[in-house]
Write a structure and sequence with these properties.
Blueprint lengths: L6 H14 L11 H40 L4 H10 L6 H10 L1 H11 L1
Helix pairs in contact: 1-2, 2-4, 4-5
């Protein structure tokens, strides 16, 4: 009895991955084995960097809060310590946004802490 191979599914799988590697450089876009490896590596990078992105944004928010706090005579650690002590529940993302886009509001928060 001849061997039965599901060519339709295999072809669809290859087509799907080659479609997703469209735009890659060189053989990574059209040679099956190279494209498959590049695609799998890209998924690994995407998974890893979704987490790295969160770290990078938190670091950016801290830098912005620190810069704004120093304009009002406090360091970042002093500022955040007083925020927690006074039970002001504003997260770093919102504080950084206030520091950048609404300095008056940030100034009011800083004054209430002093």
């Amino acid at each position: 009895m001849p061997r039965s191979v599901n060519v339709v599914a295999a072809r669809n799988k290859r087509r799907r991955i080659l479609k997703r590697t469209k735009g890659y450089f060189g053989a990574k876009k059209n040679v099956w084995s190279v494209a498959k490896n590049a695609y799998e590596k890209a998924l690994q990078y995407a998974y890893r960097d979704r987490r790295t992105k969160k770290r990078n944004f938190r670091a950016l928010w801290i830098q912005r809060i620190n810069a704004a706090a120093r304009l009002h005579g406090m360091s970042y650690s002093e500022f955040m310590g007083k925020i927690h002590k006074n039970n002001i529940e504003i997260n770093r993302k919102v504080l950084a946004d206030l520091a950048m886009n609404n300095p008056k509001a940030f100034e009011e928060i800083a004054k209430s802490l002093k």
